[in-house]
Design goal:
Helices cover 48% and strands 18% of the residues. It is α+β, with helices and mostly antiparallel strands. The chain folds into 5 domains: 95 residues; 98 residues; 94 residues; 72 residues, Signal transduction histidine kinase, dimerisation/phosphotransfer (DHp) domain (Helix Hairpins, Orthogonal Bundle); 148 residues, Histidine kinase-like ATPase, C-terminal domain (Heat Shock Protein 90, 2-Layer Sandwich). A 5-stranded mixed β-sheet has the order 12-14-15-17-16, with helices on one face. The longest helix is centred in the middle third of the chain and has 54 residues. The chain is rod-shaped, with a radius of gyration of 57 Å. The two termini are 36 Å apart.
């Protein structure tokens, strides 16, 4: 997998994860805020629960109903009780319900029965759970209901001109309550302990019945069926929590939640930034430092403070933060190894070049010295040379000049081959015949007439496109090398074999063989020079030229050799 695809998958995956996490945080924050808001409502006034959320305080199972612990605490704190009534009027769940409260209701007369059976502030909700419907009845003991009960039980409500008894006045004063009595025309008949002379209107009473939490005074009313007089009792509302205060509380809660969410999100993004800098940034800085090292010739991976490779564990495996850059780390390792090897090769090449130049200088200096010496002798007036002596000197000078020309020509040829500047005259030739003619030419050389050379041609005809001149040079150089670097008794065998998609030329000898260093540098033109004191012809560049010419003919060359056993050179060409 390439780096682009890895990074794409990495960022897409992490963006999806962060997006899901962000949505989860938002959802969790909203859920917490809604739960806090709901609990605030429960704590202040159970009657204030929205009908849509009344089911949230219950847990339904197959055979039981349970009440949320926060709802239990709020009901108990507000001196309330609660019943759940099914469609048949049966009470299927109750909590803190007084003994005077019915355990079963006749649903068509439910509200009448509830009003007549007890004197409590009551609130009703309809609850639908799956296919079942329930009535949730919440009752709350209040000072108003207690005072109204005592007032009715005293019997004064039947009087046309009602007035509280001394005992009732003490009771009302103790409870900080007040009483107003109106005739059916809503004219004031009697008032006790009411500080504000403004009489509560009909709509104010209805408003309290609907939203008691919005009023500082808790109001209860009673109409006497005999006289038609209206009795209104008021006491301080302990559950006073108006909508504007509730809205402020909600806004404050939202602001706190937003602040916590912002702080948490900021910390999360800060931690994510640190994580990304460690996951992506640190490896990038490491690789940049690595590249800088390579640019300044320090061919090694930067080390950590502990002196070990910063990208790897002790077992050699990449650290997690570096795995996404596996391809780049691998490429940098390969590049570093290659540069180290290139630097080593360059140093060896420089050393070999110096040796070769030294040898080449010696090779040129030796024939030049010969030419200079013979020229000086011929020029000297002290001697009178005979015609035969002059002819002999001229022949030696010609041989030395010819050797120098061959040396320079071979030197130029190697560089022309290296730079692909040697034009080849390609023609399809039959390889058995080409090799046979080359070997005949070699054997005609007086230096090689006494050597043992055997040729085993291919049984099949092999035709291959070659430049006859340079292919002849390949075979000649390789065979000559096998002859001149081995004892005279060494036999050389040249064989030609054909395969399905290639053919091979084998040049084998049973000579002294080569060590690994010689074999590895056999085709290096800087490995060794030559001199004119050798008894064989050549410039010392023959094998380097042969290898370059083989490559120019799209072939490959391999060498096997062992000291004391001989050498086998294999040339392989595609068909």
């Amino acid at each position: 997998m390439n780096l682009k695809r890895k990074l794409t998958r990495f960022f897409v995956f992490h963006m999806v994860v962060w997006f899901i996490m962000f949505l989860t945080i938002i959802g969790a924050t909203l859920a917490i805020l809604m739960t806090q808001d709901f609990n605030n409502i429960l704590e202040k006034e159970v009657k204030r629960i929205d009908p849509l959320y009344i089911g949230d305080i219950f847990q339904f199972s197959e055979d039981a109903i349970s009440l949320d612990k926060y709802a239990k605490s709020a009901i108990k704190k507000q001196n309330g009780w609660l019943q759940v009534i099914d469609e048949k009027g049966n009470v299927v769940f109750s909590y803190l319900t007084p003994s005077s409260i019915p355990k079963k209701y006749t649903l068509p007369n439910f509200f009448a029965e509830a009003e007549k059976a007890f004197h409590y502030e009551q609130t009703y909700w309809m609850l639908h759970q799956e296919e079942e419907s329930y009535i949730v009845l919440y009752g709350k003991h209040s000072v108003n209901t207690e005072l109204m009960t005592e007032l009715i039980d005293s019997g004064i409500t039947v009087n046309e001109t009602p007035a509280l008894t001394k005992k009732l006045e003490e009771t009302f004063s103790k409870k900080n309550g007040w009483l107003t009595v109106y005739n059916p025309d809503y004219s004031l008949l009697y008032s006790f302990n009411k500080q504000n002379k403004n009489l509560p209107g009909y709509y104010e009473i209805l408003s309290y019945k609907k939203e008691p939490w919005n009023h500082k005074t808790s109001i209860s009313s009673y109409v006497d069926p005999t006289t038609g007089n209206i009795y209104i009792i008021g006491t301080p509302n302990k559950s006073y929590f108006p909508d504007d205060q509730y809205d402020n509380t909600v806004v404050l809660s939202l602001l706190k939640g937003l602040a916590v969410f912002t702080l948490f999100t900021g910390m999360l993004f800060f931690l994510i930034s640190i994580w990304y800098s460690n996951k992506l940034g640190r490896p990038l800085l490491h690789m940049i430092l690595w590249i800088e090292n390579l640019a300044f010739g320090r061919y090694e991976e930067p080390l950590s403070k502990k002196g070990v490779r910063a990208s790897s564990r002790h077992n050699g495996k990449l650290k997690n933060s570096f795995r996404i850059y596996h391809d780049i780390i691998y490429s940098l390792n390969v590049l570093t190894s290659n540069l180290i090897q290139k630097e080593k090769d360059r140093a060896e090449m420089d050393e070999k070049r110096e040796d070769w130049i030294t040898g080449l200088s010696h090779d040129l200096k030796t024939p030049l010295s010969s030419l200079y010496g013979y020229a000086y002798m011929l020029q000297s007036e002290q001697y009178d040379w005979t015609k035969d002596e002059v002819q002999e000197f001229a022949g030696i000078m010609k041989d030395k000049a010819s050797y120098m020309t061959s040396l320079i020509d071979d030197f130029n040829l190697t560089y022309r081959l290296k730079n692909n500047a040697l034009p080849l005259q390609i023609e399809t030739e039959e390889m058995n015949e080409i090799i046979r003619r080359t070997l005949v030419h070699i054997l005609n050389d007086p230096l090689y007439q006494e050597r043992l050379i055997d040729f085993q041609p291919s049984e099949e005809e092999i035709c291959y496109p070659i430049d006859r001149k340079w292919f002849h040079r390949i075979i000649e150089n390789l065979v000559a090398n096998a002859i001149k670097h081995n004892p005279p008794s060494t036999s050389v065998r040249i064989s030609l074999k054909k395969a399905d998609d290639s053919f091979s030329i084998f040049i084998e000898d049973n000579g002294k063989g080569m060590d690994e260093a010689t074999k590895n540098n056999l085709f290096d033109r800087y490995f060794r020079g030559t001199n004119t004191e050798e008894s064989t012809k050549g410039t010392g560049l023959g094998l380097a030229i042969a290898k370059q010419l083989i490559h120019a003919h799209h072939g490959q060359i391999t060498v096997w050799s062992k000291l004391g056993e001989g050498t086998r050179i294999t040339l392989k060409f595609p068909l």
